[in-house]
Amino acid sequence: MKIQVLGTGCAKCKQLTANVQAAIADAGLAASVEKVEDLREIMKFGVMTTPALVIDGKVRSAGKVLNPTEIRTLLAK
Amino acid sequence: MSAPALQRLEAANADAAVGRQSPYAGRTVALHLLALVAWIAMYVLNGTASEWLAFSVIGLSRSSRLGSALAFFLYEVPKVLLLLVLVVFVVGVIRSFFTPERTRSLLAGRRESAGNVLAALLGVVTPFCSCSAVPLFIGFVEAGIPLGVTLSFLISAPMVNEVALVLLFGLFGWKIAALYLATGLVIAIGAGFVLGRMRLERFVEPWVYEMTATQAPSADERVSFEERLTQGREAIREIVGKVWPYVVVGIAVGAGIHGYVPEGVLAGIMGRSAWWSVPAAVLLGVPMYSNAAGIIPVVQALLEKGAALGTVLAFMMAVIGLSLPETIILRRVLRPQLIAAFVGVVAVGILAVGYLFNAVL
Questions:
Q1: Per DSSP, what are the bridge partners of residue B95?
Q2: pLDDT, average across residues B47-64
Q3: Neighbouring-strand partners of residue B215
Q4: A10, A18, A27, A39: which one is catalytic?
């Protein structure tokens, strides 16, 4: 599973990355987490608010700092 | 809380997060109503409680300077914070209906003028954080929304915000709050329209127009009412959690001016007879960066001591509407010429508002 966090480096983006890592550790999943900070790369996903969460190439959430429980729900789907 | 109960709660939260109706919906609504009753009680009792604290418990005299400053502080801080909590919550719930994606689709295909009006109005209710200004700008431009309409949105979103309106309402009354809302919208509409006429597209970084939206974001998920309430509560945590120290410090400074600076001392420098005070207020306000929460209590105290309303409104709009951090962020997609035009046109609009209110009121 490939997880990407889109964000230009604001505090919210860092918080989301930390929550993703916590969610993965909790669920015991093998997943790679990548932070996408380049603006043009971010815009290729078509999001208008950051931070955004991308799972296996699909945008699953934008503009929200999801908590680890919410992230686990998204990972399970 | 026992472990199974905790698991149930987590399951309920997870259900709410993905938009399903959880079996605890009724209880959630009841808890919110209970909180509303507690809010009303605190708001009503605040006047009595603050007087009792200042004059009976601390024992200051009503006529002393310290007494009047402290009573002002003890009354205004809880009042403004209570108003903030309620309004930020309500606005947070309203905003859950207006995602940036929906706003974009409402604006796409609009022409200028009608588009400017709609963009300025949507700027008030769409969730906006200046850190997302650039992706939002690109997203709007990609959808074919005219540059001027996009700029109307970007002017109104930070300038007309719920924190500013609550503080104006709490400290000045509804008339000034309504006046601010109306003039803020007029500036956003007018400045966006003028900038659209100026044909500035060539000063947008060219790569922005080369981008094409490759993927529609997943904004179509159904959101339950419970989840909207949760978003309201998150807005309280996020916004009130961030601005409360500014409110307290701002009101403390305001209380100091209120109690200690003699009446009319500012009439000479910030009164309506000094023509240069409006441009001076705007020039001073643009590089200053503060949120509405810190600036408005100070503004109120200035007004009380003889500053003119137009000057004070112009100062406030320049501080919160034109912020240096936001222009620096926008520099990544806009050339300096366009940024200069943007700041210039908005500043002229603010000047006009300042002079107008000094002349009329």
A1: none
A2: 81
A3: none
A4: A10
For the ranges A16-20, B15-19, B56-60, B161-165, the lowest mean pLDDT is seen at: B15-19
CA distance B139 to chain A (A): 6
How far is residue B344 CA from its own chain's centroid?
Answer: 22
Range of the domain at A22: 2-76
Looking at chain A, how many residues does it have? 77
Q: Which residue in A has a C-alpha nearest to residue B329's C-alpha?
A: A8
Distance of alpha carbon B63 from its chain centroid, rounded? 36
What number of residues does chain B have? 361
Q: Does this complex have an ipTM over 0.85? A: no
Residue A12 has pLDDT above 50, yes or no: yes
Which pLDDT does position B2 carry in this prediction?
46
For the beta carbon of residue B288, count every other beta carbon within 10 angstroms. Answer: 14
B108: which DSSP letter? T
When divided into structural domains, chain A yields a total of: 1
Per-residue pLDDT at A64: 81
The three-state DSSP-derived secondary structure of A38-72 is CHHHHHCCCCCCCCEEEECCEEEEECCCCCHHHHH
Q: Which B residues in the span 223-252 are in contact with A, Cβ-Cβ below 8 Å?
A: none
Q: Which residues contact B295 (CB under 8 A, 6 or more apart)?
A: B250, B316, B319, B320
Active site residue A13: yes
**CATH number of the domain that residue A68 is part of:** 3.40.30.10
